[in-house]
Amino acid sequence: MELRQLPIPSFFEPKKVKDIWRVPYQERAKEAEEWKERHSIPPAYKDDFRICLFLIDLQNTFCIPDFELFVAGRSGRGAVDDCINICEFIYTNLSHITEIVITMDTHQTVQIFHSIFFKDPEGRHPEPYTIITRDDVIGGRWKIAEECIYALGIEKDYGDRFLLHYIERLKEMGKYQLTIWPYHGMLGGIGHALVPSLEEAIFFHSLCRYSQPLFRMKGNFPLTEFYSALRAEVTDDHEGKNIAEEDQSLFEHLLSFDAIIIAGEAKSHCVAWTVEDLLEKLRDRDPSLTRKIYLLEDCASPVVIPEVVDYTDQADSAFKRFESMGAHIVKAKDPLNKWLITQSSP
User: Fold this and answer.
1) Cβ–Cβ < 8 Å for 327, 277
2) In terms of C-beta density within 10 A (0-12 exposed, 13-18 middle, 19 or more buried), how is residue 125 classed?
3) pLDDT tens, 228-286?
4) Of 92, 177, 250, 270, which has the most beta carbons under 10 Å away?
């Protein structure tokens, strides 16, 4: 299969990736008509080898400097440079990306990882990046705020027992400890929206290839974290009842492609847990399927907050583990011909 690279449209400005602005839809639509004719870009349904670009949480809240949880990486420009690379990857490989799937981290105020959810004996809420431990809960250092008990419509006894169960389950499964995050990805807010430059690239791809992007919201279950796009950190309560469904339909949809190319934020959290779950589910189905996975290592950065946390080593270790499980670690700046295996899927 010929894998030709296209030029990057003149309207794309890397320096604007860090900014908020309105995508001129009608203008881009006219340019897309001309672009697909000039470069003989076929509609996506004609693809014999189907490629999915799977983008994780590329929202303003994570990718725009000075927003709530900007993923800076150690360079300080992490998510900005990642988004530049992703946009350029979309434009240069427009003819070969069959569909773009996008996850959107989606939150409301009263959730288990937000400050409002907890109070100490003096009625104070924890600061962002506070770790809520088992000892904290047993010793009374932190408890669920009574107001949140009422807001969620649960009983106090249920909430107290569930919280202890939740923290213990995280430890049993080797997950990150319960962390209080700054309010971010708030449903309906500007932080929840896609980075404009990326929105523009996805829109242009959709126009040129007659390919509808698939958006998936995640993270809006109040009693559990949802780093992975496929399932919550904890899916059951202390009574064994389900509190969050796995997204099996998303997994089956991804499985329908011959190659799944993954990028997004943050490498240490939502990307890492999504890839972990995806690879495990693929191995359960058929170990050979893991060869479908390609991780764009120059399109994802870890959470780094100077003098607070640095998850770079954990992220790098996770990617090495994914490679040992069958995934390919590749670079967006390299031509697809250099690394994409285009044989038909088994």
Assistant:
1) no
2) middle
3) 999 999 999 999 999 998 899 999 999 999 999 999 999 999 999 999 999 999 999 99
4) 270
* 103: enclosing H helix or E strand: strand 97-105
Please report, as a single letter, which amino acid is at residue 24. Answer: P
Chain centroid to CA 62: how far? 10
Structure token digits, residue 139? 């010793």
Nearest to 102 by CA among 110, 114, 90: 90
Per the listing, tokens 């399932």 go with: 231
CA 283 to chain CA centroid, Å, is 21
User: Which single residue is written with the structure tokens 């009422």?
Assistant: 150
Residue 40 φ/ψ, nearest 5 degrees? 50, 55
Alpha-carbon gap, residue 73 to 75, rounded angstroms: 5
Nearest to 82 by CA among 303, 298, 324: 298
Domains for the chain: give ranges and CATH numbers.
Answer: 25-106+186-266+293-311+329-339 (3.40.50), 115-179 (no CATH)
